[in-house]
Amino acid sequence: MKLSEYAxxxxxxxxxxxxxxxxxxxxxxxxxxxxxxxxxxxxVRNTPLQVATYARVSSSQNKSNLITQQSRLIDYANxxxxxxxxxxxEIGSGLNExxxxxxxxxxxxxxxxxxxxxxDRLTRFGFKYIEQLMEMQGRKIEVINNVEDDKDDLIQDFxxxxxSFCARIxxxxxxxxxxxxxxxxLGAKGN
Length: 191
Description:
Blueprint: H1 3-9, H2 14-22, E1 28-30, E2 36-38, E3 51-57, H3 63-80, E4 84-91, H4 100-107, E5 113-116, H5 119-122, H6 127-136, E6 140-143, H7 150-190
Parallel strand pairs: 3-4, 3-5, 5-6
Antiparallel strand pairs: 1-2
């Protein structure tokens, strides 16, 4: 591949790639025309893909849905010929960024593919960012039921935004009550 392509694939500037070439850090050759060609040495994979399933519901009231959701994910993986290494079930809000099982799964570099039934099972917001970061690591998220209709996706995003703001407002009220209680306690101790 050309040096410019190497720079693009590795998210560095052409100038940085050129500096790497001149320092002898890259394997390749320079053509008579001056074009620098880098040898693409992708490691050959000897092990099968490590696949994980991730099923999530918002509350424990939906626990039966959690079990059937995971079952559908495992059936899908089997139909695709995947062997699942890890099957994760989690109860928690899709708005919550602090889901320990999901965080552990995302940090596990041995997992090549994470299967989810719908995008919102992984996260309500920022799915594209997570997907892009995974791709930069040579990993991917596979969504079984992608929404084909942009209108449905837009409506779901709208509902998610309203839900998020309502949760934040409720949290602010709760924090305000905690703050008022703390001030009252401090005032009582000062008297």
